[in-house]
Specification:
7 helices, alpha+beta, 363 residues, 5-stranded antiparallel beta sheet
Length: 363
């Protein structure tokens, strides 16, 4: 299978399946001399791992990452640092229950990748979706932890779940401190409490729902990105679209821009203390594919989980009409655990853009 690698200068390749013995990633292009240990990556993985609340899959995976190569420690480095060579990361799968999927081995789940994988490759791993499973995103989060080290402490990447189903947060109640206090990564505590009730009802009904994740990046300097084919916003959008179940991406005002006038949409500038100051950020921190120095604002829409207990009509591999219900362990709203994945993908794009910017301008 091709196309398992993402990035240009800072690149990573993931491998493994949902119910295989392990999953992993190889990160290449990381500069040498950056302090890096497994403890630097684990907090990000702990945010994404399953089994952390009743609102996500109960699969119990500790997601303990191991660094197998690309780092070295001796008395000259004052701790373990990257060597500039490929960094191999691995996480063992310890709680796969493949028998849960035996009833659907010859059926295609509506809305899932079963049909397309079968048609493209002539074979599919039906155990949890194999390679198409969101289990793969754990390695993106681990690789994203390395990307954050490349970016350094001056760039802050934060994400929040801002909508579940048809219920969105109240923007005037947005509080970043609230994100870490509830299982939804929600910046609005009152809405998070309502989501809990909504999710309980969905779970009882054997159903699922979608959501919207917003990623905000602060501290990116002016000038990252390139015109035409290396646009920062196009690469961020492409990165978010690679996340499982994502069906739409917005930068800044996004689709709301279509209803604006030119007067409303223009991010006016005035003289600030250290340079231009913008009066608004409808363009999401990017103009002409190049960062403006404002916050990068990206939103992506995640569709409902396709594996549900509610019986639906489908076909089997012989094109016989049948019905299907999936009884494994699944997220009733996969958008919840997509929050740390969105952060990771932003970090991976930006680390790559930083190194490309430095190479192009000898910066």
């Amino acid at each position: 299978m091709s196309h398992n690698t993402f990035g240009h200068v800072f690149r990573f390749t993931t491998w493994g399946e949902s119910h295989g013995p392990s999953i992993g990633a190889v990160v290449d292009g990381c500069p040498a001399g950056i302090p890096l240990t497994e403890a630097d990556l684990q907090p990000w993985l702990d945010q994404r791992r399953p089994g952390t609340s009743r609102h996500v899959t109960p699969r119990q995976e500790p997601d303990q990452v191991r660094i197998l190569s690309g780092v070295f420690e001796d008395d000259r480095t004052n701790g373990q640092v990257t060597t500039g060579t490929p960094i191999n990361l691995m996480i063992e799968n310890v709680d796969a229950r493949s028998k849960d999927y035996s009833d659907i081995r010859d059926k295609w789940r509506p809305g899932h990748a079963d049909y397309t994988y079968d048609m493209k490759y002539g074979v599919r791993d039906y155990r949890g979706g194999g390679r198409s499973s969101a289990r793969e995103t754990a390695m993106r989060v681990a690789a994203g932890g390395i990307a954050r080290k490349v970016l350094g402490p001056d760039i802050t990447i934060r994400a929040a779940l801002v909508q579940v189903g048809s219920r969105a947060i109240e923007r005037d109640r947005w509080d970043w401190n609230t994100v870490s206090t509830n299982p939804f990564f929600c910046p609005d505590a009152e809405t998070a409490a309502l989501w809990a009730d909504d999710m309980d009802a969905l779970r009882r009904d054997g159903n699922s729902t979608g959501g919207v994740v917003e990623v905000v990046v602060s501290g990116v300097p002016v000038g990252w990105g390139a015109p035409v084919y290396g646009k920062l916003d196009s690469e961020l959008a492409a990165a978010m679209m690679t996340i499982n179940a994502v069906k739409g991406v917005e930068i800044g005002a996004g689709f709301a821009s279509a209803a604006m006038t030119g007067v409303e949409a223009a991010d006016e500038m005035r003289k600030g203390e250290t340079g231009p100051a913008f009066t608004s950020n409808h363009n999401g921190g990017v103009l002409g594919g190049i960062s403006t120095g404002q916050d990068l604002v990206i939103r992506f829409a995640v569709k409902p989980t396709s594996s549900i207990r509610t019986e639906r009509r489908t076909l089997d591999r012989e094109l016989n009409e049948t019905t299907i219900a999936t009884h494994g362990r699944h997220d009733p709203c996969v958008a919840i655990r997509a929050v740390p994945v969105g952060e990771a993908m932003a970090a991976l794009v930006l680390a790559d853009q930083k190194l490309r910017h430095q190479a192009q301008l000898n910066a």
